[in-house]
Specification:
10% of the residues lie in helices and 33% in strands. The protein folds into 2 domains: 63 residues, no CATH class; 36 residues, no CATH class. It is globular. It has 2 helices and 7 strands; from the N terminus they run E-E-E-E-E-H-H-E-E. By secondary structure, it is mainly beta. A hairpin with a 4-residue loop joins strand 3 and strand 4. The longest helix is centred in the middle third of the chain and has 8 residues.
């Protein structure tokens, strides 16, 4: 089965650098506005600020040893999200529009991390 949205990936051959995956991990190039914030042999994480909504979009990439069908079945198992999706406290199917469209409600409570930056003082 051919994916509907193929992902362009590249294999990293050196230490992680912005826009590249960790050695051995395939990760998509998210684009020039994305900043890499974490990388190891199992996961690469990028973010970008979305000024229009004053939010930060985060993408993580990893490799999974499973068939596309098994992955799809897992990520669409909304009724059990609270059992296996990190930080998911509540998940409800609001409307089954069609076989391929579902409207859901998710309550996700990830930890918030505040990184203080040094303040500038006037001389």
């Amino acid at each position: 089965m051919e994916p509907r949205h193929p992902v362009t990936a590249e294999k990293a051959h050196s230490a992680p650098e912005p826009g590249r995956a960790a050695p051995g991990l395939l990760a998509p190039k998210p684009g020039p506005e994305w900043k890499q914030v974490s990388a190891n042999k199992e996961l690469v994480v990028y973010f970008r600020d979305v000024d229009a909504v004053k939010a930060r979009e985060v993408r993580g990439f990893t490799e999974i040893a499973a068939s596309p069908e098994a992955i799809f079945k897992t990520v669409t198992d909304f009724a059990h999200y609270t059992q296996f999706m990190p930080y998911t406290k509540d998940e409800k199917i609001l409307q089954q529009v069609s076989d391929h469209v579902v409207i859901t409600y998710s309550l996700v409570t990830p930890p918030l991390i505040h990184r203080a930056t040094p303040s500038r003082r006037s001389p």
